[in-house]
Amino acid sequence: MRRLSGPAASIVQSFKSHRMRAVGPIVFCIVILLAAAYWMYDGFSHPRQYTYEKHISASGIELHVLETAPDNVQLTTIEQNVTNTPFYGINGGFFWEGALLSIAVVNDRPLKGEPGDYGSGWYNTGVNADLKRGTLVWDELTRRFTVQVATDASELSVTDKQHYWAQGGVSMGLGDEYGWENHMISEEMPAYDEERMRSALVFDRNQRLYMVVTPTPSTVYDFRLAIMERLGGRGLVDGIFLDGDGSSQLQCRARSLSGDGRPVYQMLAMKQ
Fold first, then answer.
1. pLDDT tens digit string along 220-243?
2. Are 38 and 80 in the same domain?
3. In this structure, are 183 and 122 located in the same domain?
4. Which region, left, alpha or beta, applies to residue 70 given φ > 0 means left and ψ of -120 to 50 means alpha?
5. Which of 30, 37, 220, 238 has the maximum number of C-beta atoms within 10 A of its C-beta?
């Protein structure tokens, strides 16, 4: 094949050069469109009816907070780290080798198994077989949160057993500055005086729920103080401590906290 030379070669080379310059913007536009499509898909496929906030207390404790409505919360079982699930939310109650050791009940049904089954989410279980622990209860009919101290879900007081959810933990006693610590100890809060990662649920007078996780190793006392310091202006009423340390995990669009990477077996996930 004869090679072009002279003016013909210049014309061909100029055409190729213009074509290459045109490809760059086209590729850039395609990348932008793909990124926008992914962003829109991610936004529509994950919950959006919540707010995320990060606070740092005067003592340096980092609080990561998800605020949402109680009707937007779904108690669910998982068998992996919260950050490896498709859900937005935080870890739930205590567990041991897959057995749920905190009340985790929706409409009077434990999340795993049947009412009365060990490890099903029917009981608040500890060293003491008759242990009573703080349990956050949402009554769908009265539209009110309460913290009730109970051994099992049958002891919970609600308007209609078919319209509530309950998450067990340990009482925070936000309205009891003199007695909360003794109650917390009597409810067998693990490692309360050691510096560990922590998780909690608190609610305000408008019945808004705050899911709180700190990756900062702290005592229960300091964690509670940080919550009151940074969120106290919201009109907090009460709350419960959840499982902590490596189980303190959170996931949302803006942030993921994996604790120590361990799997957990129950979480509070947001529906939308």
1. 999 999 999 999 999 999 999 999
2. no
3. yes
4. alpha
5. 220
